[in-house]
From TrEMBL:
Residues in ABC transmembrane type-1 domain copies: 94-305
UniProt keyword list: Cell membrane, Membrane, Transmembrane, Transmembrane helix, Transport
Protein name, entry field: Dipeptide transport system permease protein DppB
Transmembrane parts of this sequence: 6-22, 98-121, 141-165, 186-209, 244-268, 289-312
Length: 321
């Protein structure tokens, strides 16, 4: 266990370093976005003052040292563009991202498990062929294209749902009306994200189910006259769900990262869209803070999977013991 904790710490240290150096490796400078199109016309003293204000006039190693020291104090710095604490901005956006990606993860897991199990149970039938073909098709469709098609159909051609945002601007809705307004704005992005992430869970569940149905204990149960319903629910479904659980726990860690493409297409005010805006504006502190939050959430998901999986599968306990 101590060895695994050490591995996670090394990954965290490496991620913190990458969070600092990768944004600075991108082409372009924050000055262009801070000073606008006239950055080339700025007097030298104004340019130097701007660099000094953001700390970009110091050597890279000094900037890195200050970044690590600030992290140790829990200080993520200030956004160049918004001039607000990065931590405050992350906390403001996080609930929207968790609502969007959490809903999509829950729906894709439930439907992926049910459809995957049924497809394997009816192997080589029409349901198996139809769901497998649909899964491969969905997996090959770009998420932004699917989102734009849904907008064109269900927001423009048939105006059933809002085109963008998470709430109707200046509506001042409260109570149940506000909940329904948010739910209507969620439909299209959640459906898009669910469809593009459904195939992973479906394929894992289908192949795990096929593997379990070929095991000796399933054949023995059938030979003893156990009903097909009991074979499905008691013997096959439970054991085949273990790989899906691992995928779910790993996906749980990516919830915080949001869906950059989906949130950008639907102008959804989550962390994913904020990451896109921060990268476009070369807002280094905001990028560093967002990437750090994503890194910590992924590591937390992996740690949770490491802890919970042996409790659910006795074979893992025996191997680790």
């Amino acid at each position: 266990m101590l060895e695994r904790v050490g591995q996670y710490l090394l990954v965290l240290i490496a991620a913190i370093s990458l969070n600092f150096f990768l944004p600075r490796a991108m082409p372009g400078s924050p000055l262009q976005f801070l000073a606008g199109e006239d950055v080339a016309l700025l007097p030298a003293e104004d340019r130097q003052a701007l660099l000094a204000r953001t700390g970009l006039d110091q050597p890279l190693t000094v900037q890195y040292g200050k970044y690590v020291a600030s992290l140790a104090r829990g200080d993520l710095g200030y956004s160049y563009q918004a001039n607000k604490p990065v931590l405050t901005m992350l906390i403001e956006r996080l609930p929207w991202t968790l609502l969007l990606t959490g809903s999509a993860l829950l729906l894709s897991t439930v439907f992926g498990v049910i459809v995957g199990a049924l497809a394997a149970w009816r192997r080589n039938g029409w349901l198996d062929h139809a769901t497998l073909t649909s899964s491969i098709l969905l997996d090959s469709v770009p998420s932004f294209w699917l989102g734009m098609m849904l907008v064109a159909l269900f927001a423009v051609q048939w105006p059933l749902f809002p085109v963008f945002g998470a709430q109707t601007p200046w509506s001042n809705l409260t109570g149940w009306a506000n909940v329904m307004d948010i739910a209507r704005h969620l439909v299209l992005p959640v459906v898009t994200l669910t469809l593009v992430s459904l195939s992973g869970t479906f394929l894992v569940m289908r192949y795990a189910m096929l593997s379990v149905l070929g095991e000796d204990y399933v054949r023995t149960a059938r030979a003893k006259g156990v009903s097909e319903r009991q074979v499905l629910y008691k013997h096959a479904l439970r054991n085949a769900s273990m790989p899906v659980f691992t995928v779910f726990m790993l996906n749980l860690g990516t919830l915080v990262g949001g869906a950059v493409v989906i949130e950008t297409v639907f102008a959804f005010p989550g962390l994913g869209r904020m990451l896109f805006e921060a990268a476009s504006n070369r807002d280094y502190p905001l990028l560093q803070g967002a990437f750090l939050m994503v890194t910590i959430s992924i590591l937390a998901g992996n740690i949770l999977a490491d802890v919970v999986y042996p409790l659910l599968d006795p074979r893992v306990r025996v191997q680790r013991g």
